[in-house]
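Look over this one:
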Amino acid sequence: MLVGFTEDGVPLDSTQCQRLFDLPGQQPKAFDIEIPAAVLARLQALQSDRQKALLEEMTARNAHWFDIEMDKLDRWAEDRRASLKVELEELDDAVKETRKAARLAPNLPEKLERQRELRKLEGNRDAAWRSYDEASLELDRQKDAVLDGVSKRLEQCSEAENLFVVRWCLI
C-alpha cells in the first residue's frame, strides 16, 4: 500500500503515489536521510487510515459473499424441503388409499396383499422422512461450513512494514 501527501498536506491516493514511480527521477548528490518526525507521523496516520479503509472494504465484500452464500443455501433448502414434502404427501395419500383398500378387500388373501402393500408404502414413507431429516442435517452442515469460512476470514490480520520513504520534487 502506498501513501503520500503533498507539501501542502493534501493526501495522495495509492494510484497517484504509484504513478510517481513512472516518472524519471534523479537522486541529488547531497541528500538528507533524516525524516522529520512530523512527516513520519503524517505518513503513519495516512497508512493507518488506508489500512482501515481496506479492512472495511474487505469486510463489506465478505458480508456480500456471506449473504449470497446463505441465500443459495436457503433457496436450496426450500427447494429440497418442498420436493421432499410433495413426496411425503404422495406417500401419505398412497398409504391412506391402500389402508382403505385393505379394509374394503372382499376376502382374506386380498386383505393380506393390501396389508403387504401398505407395509411397503409405510417403509417408503419412513425412508422419505429420513431423507428429509438428512437433508436438514446436510443444510446445517453447509451453513456451519459457511460460518466457519466467514470466521476464518474475520481472523485475518494485516501488517504494514515501512520499506522506504521518498521525497519527490517535480520540476
